[in-house]
Amino acid sequence: MSSKHKSRWDNEDAAEDAAEAARRKAEKEAKKAAKLEKARKAEEQAAAAAAARRRHEEEHHEDEGRHAQNSLTISDEPPSKRRKVSAEPDDGDNTNNDDVAAAKKRRQHASSATTAQEKDAGESRLLRFPAPEIKPCNSVDDYEPLNRIEEGSYGIVSRARHLASGEVVALKKLKLEGETDGFPITSLREIQTLMAARHANVVNLREVVVGEQLNQVYIVMDFIEHDLKTLLDDMPEPFLQSEVKTLMIQLLSATATMHTNWIMHRDLKTSNLLMNNRGQIKVADFGLARYFGDPCLPLTQLVVTLWYRSPELLLGAQKYGTAIDVWSIGCIFAELILKEPLFQGKSEIDQLSKIFELMGVPTDEEWPGWRRLPNSKSLRFPRTKQTTGHLLRSKFPLLTTNGVSLLSSLLSLDPSKRITAEEALKHPYFRDDPKPKSEAMFPTFPSKAGQEKRRRLNSPSAPMRGDAPQLFGEVGLAGRSGLFAGLDEEEVGGGFSLKVH
Amino acid sequence: MVSIFTAPLATPAQLSTSPSQLAGIPEALEQKLRLVACRLIQAAGILMELPQPTISTAIILLQRYYLTTPLTTSPLLPTSLASLYLSSKLTEHPQKPRDLINIFKYLLSPASPLHPPHLRKPTREPPEPSEEGGEKEAGKVKKKETNRNEYYVSEGDYTALRSLLLSTEARILRALGFNTTVNLPYTLAFNYLQSLGVLTHNSPPQPDPAATGSPSNPRQHQKLVSTTFAYLTDLLASPSQVYLTHHPHELAVAGIYLAARDHGVKLPERWWEVWDVERETLGFLVVVMRGGTYLGNSKLWIIEEGGFEEGIDGGTGEVVPVGAESVLREMERLRAL
């Protein structure tokens, strides 16, 4: 075995593993050196076998990840007898080649020792899966605190510098003081899902570090300069269509990846989308994220910030799925164009009425079964020809036809008819002119979070744990008809008017 | 991307230098204690009607934790409790500390089916150790004669154990760097069995199953799956700790290999290579799996405090106390030998 063979345990993603890997490699080489001569013969035969069965394997591994490095020279010898399967793997060998038998026994011996992984990746073309190590948390003392960025109910986010590398990171301290049931399940989900959702457009979790006390736990993430909400508030002009397309593609592909990995974010909104100066957005704040299953189980309805909450959640559906994230993406899409949130409800009922004003009251054909959702029984909806069908065309006069079509599919009232993130990426809107702008061409902005405290946002925050609200009353549609405007004020208290463009 | 194929694995250095052994616990004792912890967790999980993935996750978390922390620092009982508590949250079946503590205390009490029969009061009839092992029996509710005081948990005991449970949970998370990803081989094994075509119910019954060797009825399919799962579950408690050294797909393939052989199901040539398992790896795992029955070992009795007694009752088993003090006493005794 030569030194250029890569250890199967080499984790190319983790730089910190490099030292460990080097040490292991050296160890392995020392062991291998003694056996080199005999092993070589065995390897040649194995290579022949590998060549013979490669075609067979490749059919099965089209999308399973990277192939192990193959550093073998393939010979033309027929596969060795050693590969026959008629015998049990553990009851000796069925070959008359002594060298091969010896090599095999040696290997088997090596694997039955505690160091089962001291094996050689170069032998065949089988896939090798890297494994992270089991290692304890580093200390928060590895980081030097800089300034505070944001403080919320979930914890405090501050900027910090990694002392060893000098890199600036975002440090999120989890609030664990009031916890009586150990480490909160929500924080466990946040860390688990953030670890699993590795994507160019998801904020990178570097590690979890801890302080002296057992309740001092910090999540270390890449520091990203902006959040999209603050950017939108400060920009004199909204994003260009080409820029909106790029941002939407990024958001949709991050969401599609999460959904493929059975993760629901459950709090997508512009203030949770961070943006760097290289034209990339990063989905952040997985505080409400969790794994879901199929078929879905009853989950809490108290998720997603009100303005981005989907109608099925507002109507009290206990079973919901990834469509709630897609609704939020629809709201974000509209917000990127309008430069202000699309549905700014003051309460759950107000939010529903704002949604129905724009999207129309659902008919039983549009959304079968919506009347059976818990909250819709106690709500009365005006339903005339005037109140059904969406008004997106007049609200977004400058958006292309395909743009309106994408928006209306993202904001489909019936969650089962709502487009998925995966499908949305293939929408013709993204192929229309103007084409999505390249990330490198994005303008840069002065960072708010870099030096000063990020501004407290003028938007509602994600719901806290508690009981789901029971909605009742009448949903008024002021924008559609003056007749219902008064009713809404009576029931909700907060009046509103819809600007129809 | 954390894939379903990978799990954090132990390094050779971690496996060769056990912190418990560095702390003075002999290897044999450490293995015994770890096995007892696995049995306790498994039995508690069954009593609490938790799904097997939750239980398996707890056992793997415990094994990973003891790679980093000696048994002397983190005694068996709070660690087993905390592992199951943590895994119940991770797998979305959260349990209350109160219930966990009640169940574990019951399992360590004289009323428990895991309690050695010869140490029970003679008035009670000893349960028959069955082939399936103690866990199955644990599911049965004991008769009226059971004295509830035997497993009553006083408020003081509960409070103390609860705070120990919660602090151990925090320590487990820290020791694992909060990487709690546990990928179990069950789903993979099921998928592999499906892909191998040995679970297709649609195929017409074979005229002569013995000739073709393939299963001919749904019951046999069922058996193939459950035997595979049984191998995989029992393997959790193997002293080789292969869940710390091997990826789930390798374990899944080994489980299928043995189950298929048990039921005389013929599989295609070199089928394991389709799932990237080397013949040598498979061979090693098969040897480990056939090494013995671990979780279902009916010759192993568990008490809270007391002496380690081997070969009791004419060789019907051994007694392992899990209490920290008993472990220390046993360490003293072994050192004196």
Automatic annotation (TrEMBL), chain A:
<feature type="domain" description="Protein kinase">
    <location>
        <begin position="143"/>
        <end position="430"/>
    </location>
</feature>
<dbReference type="InterPro" id="IPR008271">
    <property type="entry name" value="Ser/Thr_kinase_AS"/>
</dbReference>
<feature type="compositionally biased region" description="Basic and acidic residues">
    <location>
        <begin position="429"/>
        <end position="438"/>
    </location>
</feature>
<dbReference type="GO" id="GO:0004693">
    <property type="term" value="F:cyclin-dependent protein serine/threonine kinase activity"/>
</dbReference>
<dbReference type="GO" id="GO:0005524">
    <property type="term" value="F:ATP binding"/>
</dbReference>
<dbReference type="InterPro" id="IPR050108">
    <property type="entry name" value="CDK"/>
</dbReference>
<dbReference type="GO" id="GO:0005634">
    <property type="term" value="C:nucleus"/>
</dbReference>
<feature type="region of interest" description="Disordered">
    <location>
        <begin position="1"/>
        <end position="128"/>
    </location>
</feature>
<feature type="region of interest" description="Disordered">
    <location>
        <begin position="429"/>
        <end position="467"/>
    </location>
</feature>
<feature type="compositionally biased region" description="Basic and acidic residues">
    <location>
        <begin position="117"/>
        <end position="126"/>
    </location>
</feature>
<protein>
    <recommendedName>
        <fullName>cyclin-dependent kinase</fullName>
        <ecNumber>2.7.11.22</ecNumber>
    </recommendedName>
</protein>
<dbReference type="InterPro" id="IPR011009">
    <property type="entry name" value="Kinase-like_dom_sf"/>
</dbReference>
<feature type="compositionally biased region" description="Basic and acidic residues">
    <location>
        <begin position="55"/>
        <end position="67"/>
    </location>
</feature>
<dbReference type="InterPro" id="IPR000719">
    <property type="entry name" value="Prot_kinase_dom"/>
</dbReference>
<dbReference type="GO" id="GO:0007346">
    <property type="term" value="P:regulation of mitotic cell cycle"/>
</dbReference>
<dbReference type="Pfam" id="PF00069">
    <property type="entry name" value="Pkinase"/>
</dbReference>
<keyword id="KW-0547">Nucleotide-binding</keyword>
<feature type="compositionally biased region" description="Basic and acidic residues">
    <location>
        <begin position="20"/>
        <end position="44"/>
    </location>
</feature>
<keyword id="KW-0067">ATP-binding</keyword>
<keyword id="KW-0418">Kinase</keyword>
<keyword id="KW-0723">Serine/threonine-protein kinase</keyword>
<dbReference type="InterPro" id="IPR045267">
    <property type="entry name" value="CDK11/PITSLRE_STKc"/>
</dbReference>
TrEMBL record, chain B:
<dbReference type="InterPro" id="IPR013763">
    <property type="entry name" value="Cyclin-like_dom"/>
</dbReference>
<dbReference type="GO" id="GO:0006357">
    <property type="term" value="P:regulation of transcription by RNA polymerase II"/>
</dbReference>
<dbReference type="GO" id="GO:0016538">
    <property type="term" value="F:cyclin-dependent protein serine/threonine kinase regulator activity"/>
</dbReference>
<dbReference type="InterPro" id="IPR043198">
    <property type="entry name" value="Cyclin/Ssn8"/>
</dbReference>
<protein>
    <recommendedName>
        <fullName>Cyclin-like domain-containing protein</fullName>
    </recommendedName>
</protein>
<dbReference type="InterPro" id="IPR036915">
    <property type="entry name" value="Cyclin-like_sf"/>
</dbReference>
<feature type="domain" description="Cyclin-like">
    <location>
        <begin position="39"/>
        <end position="174"/>
    </location>
</feature>
<feature type="region of interest" description="Disordered">
    <location>
        <begin position="201"/>
        <end position="220"/>
    </location>
</feature>
<feature type="region of interest" description="Disordered">
    <location>
        <begin position="114"/>
        <end position="143"/>
    </location>
</feature>
<feature type="compositionally biased region" description="Basic and acidic residues">
    <location>
        <begin position="122"/>
        <end position="143"/>
    </location>
</feature>
<comment type="similarity">
    <text>Belongs to the cyclin family. Cyclin C subfamily.</text>
</comment>
